[in-house]
Amino acid sequence: MPKPASLPADARPLRSVLYMPASNRRAIEKARGLDTDAVALDLEDAVAPELKAEARATLAAEVASGGFSHRRLIARINGLATEWGHDDLAALAATSIEALLAPKVDGPDDIAALSSAMDAAGYPAEIALWVMIETPRAVLALERIAACAATTRLAGFVLGLNDLAKDTGIAQLSGRAAFVPVLVQAVMAARANGLAILDGVCNAIDDPARLEHECVQARDFGFDGKTLIHPSQIDLANRTFAPSSADLDEAHAVVAAFADPANAGKGALRVNGKMAELLHRDMAARLIARAEAIATR
Hints:
Helix content is 43%, strand content 16%. By secondary structure, it is α/β, with parallel strands linked by helices. It has two domains: 16-240, Phosphoenolpyruvate-binding domains (TIM Barrel, Alpha-Beta Barrel), CATH 3.20.20.60; 245-290, no CATH class. Helix 9 links the parallel strand 7 (196-199) and strand 8 (225-228).
């Protein structure tokens, strides 16, 4: 029987995930005080080839130093097909990262190989595998990749539209209309298999209106949050992916209506002029739990 569609079991927020070059100690130190939900320490795109080994050592040392408080730590390695990938994977096995983020996967075989390599390197069972969806082949294999969650460490998708644009020639125009099918299908595949899913970065650091549009679009499409490339983007992402006060008020009203003994056994109610069914009660409870998780963070 197919696995039922579901949201990730981990309710901790992932509204903002800030990439930081693993080679930059000053940037990593700054990350310890930023209001981001997670930090993605990057060994791949953000690090020049001649600095890879040094960055790897820096990442391990900074993670060991701690001080990141609530901020979840993710490490993006180089692909296993590169000359640095296997060394990255081996070096991070003893660290306290929460997830290993692998770039440029193409299909289920890559997921199986990465998960097996993590097992062989001695990664604790709680360290998850996240993967970048950033190649044409990965997009064409979205559901098959996501289904690997049942048998591997796979727990999350991260969209990489920059690489996807490069490999396909699709322009990243304002509004991202050409990428809407990819965004929607990625969410469908993730939710069908209980994966977290994060939107790709917004390159326009000095264009908050464009960032806001992308955050709202991703939120409305069902993403958990957005990956970011600059600290100035954190606050907007956090606000956009958090429930609004109006949404919370409505959610509490729906939950209270179904909890009222006078409505016991009813499957549909009229709440504030709208029809609410049991599925709306469940959605409301989930939204309240999300707000509480953000508040207690």
